[in-house]
Here is the input.
Amino acid sequence: MPESAGDKTEKATPKRRQDERKKGHVVQSADITAAVSMGGTFAVLRVLGPSMAKNLSNGMRNLLGNLSSTVSGYEDMRARLMVGLSVIIQVAVPVMLVAFVAAVAVTLAQTRLLVVPDQLKPDFSKLNPLEGIKKLFSVRSLVELGKSILKIVLVGAVVFFEIKPKMHTILLLYNMSLAQSFTWVAGVLADIGIKVSAVMLALGAIDYFYQWFQYEKDIRMSKEEVKEEFKQMEGNPEIKGKIKSLQRQMARRHMMQDVPKADVVLRNPTHYAVALRYEHGKQRAPVCVAKGRNAVALRIVEIAEENHVHITENPPLTRALFKAVEVGAEIPAEFYKAVAEVLAYIYKLRRAGRR
Here is the structure.
């Protein structure tokens, strides 16, 4: 079946990728973020579990011990509430803080520190029920449904095989002290959580590659879009300026490579420099192989000195040649005599064995 002009068969251009990134469209997996956040949470629970259990046990003992007594006033009620609040803070804050930091860090790592404020604005188009129904029966929705079922099955299996051998201990929890019970439960939850996080992380890695494949597919371009983008970039003054700058740099490098081949470099003495080459029998007149002013002129002179090219100071002739001749062109006829005198002097020095 022949391709139409609108078929998105071309890989996205760098500009398209940059535009998509500015919109916040990047490859990331929510499963990886959830797995790392969960793993960090349960790792904290594993490390700080005993101390958390002790704090929770002491707080519960104080609260339960005070239930039998009546509240004597505002200060008494306030003191009891502060005890309960301090217990919640000591237990919940470390866990919540680690979960939050882990989620933010993983998200920024996946998006390469991308922050798009526009993504925080409400998008009421997402509330359109027709769009929601379309998405519900899309291929992506079916894939997400399959992923969810797989996660439920795997997580359920991890929880089952982790709890099954501990059932006899669960039945004996009533014989333990409050602190011992909390410590044991926290340890079991931490073990389950870490193993579930490992499973989620493996699924997240698979999901990331799926998201990358889907992203590459979504940002593909048609041949017409590629052509249109190229036209826009060519008309962009910044792009044109960069192209011209690169062309000048390339021309300058090529020009500097020809300076060692010159017969003479005329200078004035620091502002202008013109390098000339003449091959008897091959050229009708000397050719300008390089020219420049200020820093470029000094570089031409420097290269000439390094390669033992004769350098002559002749300000009027140098300025005149700089204005009259382009690099790669023969000098105009009106300069034949003046340049011939310079070359004759150089040839004389060479025959005498001097530079």
User: Anything to note?
Assistant: The two ends are 73 Å apart (CA to CA). Residues 178-218 form the longest helix (41 residues). The beta strands are 264-267, 272-277, 287-293, 310-313. The mean pLDDT is 79.
